Amino acid sequence: MGGGTGTGGAPVIAGVAKSMGILTVGIVTTPFSFEGRRRAVQAQEGIAALRDNVDTLIVIPNDKLLTAVSPSTPVTEAFNLADDILRQGVRGISDIITIPGLVNVDFADVRAIMANAGSSLMGIGTATGKTRARDAALNAIQSPLLDIGIERATGIVWNITGGSDLTLFEVLCVYRN
Fold it and tell me: What is d(CA 139, CA 144) in angstroms, rounded to the nearest whole number?
């Protein structure tokens, strides 16, 4: 958000989709602080307009990405990371709906959580090793991209993706913790 096309167009497109009864989820980033006040103000205005036209809105401050990268990360790589996080969010939601899992979660389940939900959060976690499932879940809920914890959440959509060696015990451990 903060540019011209997406900031102005996203609320209009989302409004049309929502008026048709389509579940609308917005996943957007706010500009880095170094991009200037004008761009930040445009982004906030666009987010306010978008919030009125979506069921669920996930806002990721680009400045939060700075806590997820090393100080020597080139600017272009930081922007690519922001784009990749957006891609992971969209893909995560679509995968839950379109890829059958061991525990079948369908579009109705996702709609029940996300319809008219307002502001939402997104955490993504990955891990390897003996406690990989638990560690990935902890990484997701302790993500530097989250402004607040999940304690106040009224609903949670979670998805665990793993290789063929992912065990039932690992999944159960994530669920219980």
Answer: 9
* Closest to 51 (Cα-Cα) out of 30, 22, 24: 24
What is the spatial distance between Cα 151 and Cα 153, in angstroms, rounded to a whole number? 6
What is the CA angle 87-177-164, rounded to 5? 55
In angstroms, rounded to a whole number, what is the distance separating the alpha carbons of residues 63 and 8? 22
Q: Is the CB of residue 50 less than 8 Å from the CB of residue 11?
A: yes
SS3 177: coil
Contact 57, 47 (CB under 8 A): yes
Domains of the chain, first to last: 5-176 (3.40.50.1440)
pLDDT (0 to 100) of residue 147: 62
- Tell me the two tokens of residue 73: 């990360």
pLDDT grade, residue 69 (50/70/90)?
A: confident
Q: For 127, what's the count of Cα atoms within 13 Å in the CB-facing half-sphere?
A: 18
Q: Please check the confidence at residue 77 and state whether its pLDDT lies above 80.
A: yes
SS3 category, 82: helix
Q: How far is CA 55 from CA 52, 69, 136, 162, in A?
A: 8, 31, 27, 29
